[in-house]
Amino acid sequence: MVQLWLPVTQELSFQKFIEQSDLLEEFKYDFNEKAELRHTETQSPFVFNYYENVLERNSKRYQALGRLLEQYIYELLEKLCKLQKVYIPQEVDKEPRSFFFMSEGALTNHHSVVLVLLQDQGVFRAGQWSQQAIIHHGLHHGSQIPCIQMALQAHYDVIVLNPNDNFVDLKMEKEWKGLLKQSIESPSLKMAQAESFLSFQHPLQGLPKRCSHTPEEHVAYVWDHFISRTEGKDVAFIVHGYGGLVFMDLLVRRKWEVMSKVYAVALIDSDHHVGHQLGSDGQLLAWIKHHCREWVTSPKPLDKLAATVLKKEFPVVSAGTEKHSLAPSSSLQSIFKYFKKALKAKTTITFSQVPIETRSSTKRKQSA
């Protein structure tokens, strides 16, 4: 895979980001030149068992690292990829809101493709395919940033969805903001705050975010208010895991809009179920046959036809890996080739449907 990673400057380093919190002693980690997470002193990979055989405390530490990575990648999306953070719903600002990211000209640029990224369900927020892959394999494999860079270099506009940002836990938010704020408090107080967060045992009791209560609701809102308003643009989707089920839900709910605007869908190890979601709708089945392609985890080389237990309604090929979390990065180059070929075929079909003006037809018009 050709890496398109742009070097992260010192100002955007993960270590500097951690320094802004009160968890520096817990996380002496940064991303090296290969975008791998390494200990700043020993250069060793992340160690889960930091507190020897204290599972609950190690789990809280892991969750804290995940939250730091979440906020760090948000910053990279804005400062490295130059994407805009858009809060939804737009008409309110005094209640918990979700958000997504998009390139500056996504709604106004003409004659371009809009690429929409939709990840699996879980703790993954905007900009992430897999938190586990980021921690153990690096930003190249777990984050969406290489994909975004490829899209921008191909002159696509980009919309990065945030389907798993559904609730806000007010007590957890208070604890977290206390850790992230920059202050001149005493080291002992900072350590007490960190200990408080890492030992936090309050069960999640979330306040739902309006218009993003579920992944399906989030995606439908962004479609209705943003993606559907991209006049004269071709839309492509990359969907991973549960994101495939969410896309099929959108296809059923917004049937004619989606079929008319979306020219290609790359599904990666998808959790969708055509029979349950699309039923026997002949128009939808015909559409996915010509506009969808899936990359699945498989021991076979990348792009080789993959054997599946169930009959598939569209082409299914190997993602070049047997790991679900690595499938997006492994299949990325192949997906962009698919998009290019699909767009070229769409353009050819569009032009072939336009009546060709001939000298004889012009004479007929004039004499009529």
Automatic annotation (TrEMBL):
Pfam families: Arb2
Residue intervals of the Arb2 domain: 23-302
InterPro entries in alphabetical order: Arb2, Arb2_dom
Family annotation (PANTHER family): FAM172 FAMILY PROTEIN HOMOLOG CG10038, PROTEIN FAM172B-RELATED
Protein name: Arb2 domain-containing protein
Organism from which the protein derives: Equus przewalskii
Protein encoded by which gene: LOC103564786
